[in-house]
Amino acid sequence: MTTLERLPYAGQLPASFFAIPAAIYAGLPYRPKENPGLTRELFALQAANHEIITYTDHAHLRLVGIFPHAGPDAYFGFWETTDDAPLNEAAFALLAADARQRGKATLAGPYHFNTFQRYRLRLTGRPSWQQFDREPVNPPYYPALLARAGFAPTLAFESRLLRAATVPEVYRQKNPVLENLGRIPYDFIPVTAASWDALEDELFALIQQIFGANPAYKPVSRAQFRQLYNREYAARLCPHSSVLFRDRHSGRLAALSLCQPNYAALQLPAGQAPVFTRDYARLPRKTLLAKTVGVHPDFRRQGLMSLLAAYAMQGFRDWYEEVLFCLMRADNFSLQFTAGMPVETAHYALFQKHLL
What we know:
By secondary structure, the chain is α+β, with helices and mostly antiparallel strands. The protein is built from ten helices and 13 strands. Strands 1, 2, 3, 4, 5, 6, 7, 8, 9, 10, 11, 12 and 13 form a 13-stranded mixed sheet that branches. The mean pLDDT is about 90.
């Protein structure tokens, strides 16, 4: 009989932690990318503000319980498992008991400490693109295992692929916005590794202000932000569509759009990050990923979301065949951009269980 261990984090992860996913994703055309060094660093950074417990049998399941020292919520993350319902029910029961003992009212996940890291499950089994950069992916049986453990979806998300055949119609519909782009009182700053270096402080503040009110959002330290969002990250971005809008009157950054090609087909070696100037020309199909787009609260209701899209559209046909709008919340206004157009859609969810 499989034995589950309960391992409080004390500076190290179990030796089996990074080995378990290999068998689970064998034969699947996708798998989450996990950097052991960055994961260990993340646990070390988070240990000051969280109690962290790993539940594992060292062969078929790993599950991490995340218990913030403050607040009524607990989380689970880093969950990878074979299709074994009794094993998962036992592991989640241990986790729920620990959460109740600590006075937590809800248990949510998958959630790797914050929304800057991996979170959510993909509910769509196998979309045509298989996997894009940092897309949450998992075997198709994961949602059913969570349902058996008493969890239900609490936040919904979508990705929408707009194929090449639809692009001319998009330009026809959005032409008035394109014509207005040159007349707005904003300066356009293309996002490159150099501009990221120069504007990192402003970018860090802008991203916190844009996304700070989103459900499940947790602020992160500068060190945690730099783990993922840094000069190396900026080098993968498309310099023709990634942009910052700076308000000419106040000098403040007002909006951002961070886009990149879908590099997945290149199957770059583990640890090698994509670079636009090196890798774009090698792509067999040019798909633009519209990944992180937002407007500062002080500059909303001015149509800047549409104008950010129009900026990317200026050179889109010279560089790309299709566009994938990534991981939009299902109630987000940005979904209106593709409303009524033929798209391929993938669905995702964050799950929650009430404990009291």
